[in-house]
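[job 4471] stage=fold_predict status=RUNNING
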Amino acid sequence: MSNTYELKAEARAQVGKGSARELRRNGLIPAVIYGDKKDPVSIALSRKDVTLKIHAGGFMTTIATIDVDGTKYSVLPKDYQLDPVRDFLMHVDFLRISKNTQVTVEIPVHFENEEKAPGIKRGGVLNVVRHTVECNCPANAIPEALIVDLTGLEVGDGVHISAVTLPEGVEPTITDRDFTIATVAAPAGLKSDDNASEDGEEAAEGESEE
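[job 4471] inference complete, writing structure tokens
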């Protein structure tokens, strides 16, 4: 799992559009902590601090501790909104978590051993079908990534989810099929050569028949 981090926040007594606009003018953003069968907590966070965490990567799969005026909450970001025009952060939703909390998250897919894939070494192209895989897993054991080993793959081969070793407790939300993660596609030049060869063979067959 990615390294955890802590954010300082202050309790937000007032809610609504007017209050939110006031916060944003002061460099803060409204946010809410909910879940775990407890009342939601409205808070205000530094826009700069949260934006830096989002840009650092892994924001949606990393547990955070939020210190609200001395009270600490263990949370997982569930959603955030950006201004559609100016693209700056507007609001964040955090899910309060405990040791038994199960979450559904998009886990990035990382590929290794491309140099050990004969099909890629001969010019084949790795065609990534899924850059992330939606999984159910314990909130305190979210993997940073799912690792796909490309060793031995030839042109035309594919990697399915059944070939990926999933950490304990991690299960894909798609369970009715063995879906494809990536394939090794033939390079454009090879496709053209193959087509030309097939055309030549067909022409030769036609001439011999005549």
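[job 4471] summary: Residues 101 and 139 are 6 Å apart (CA to CA).
[job 4471] exit 0
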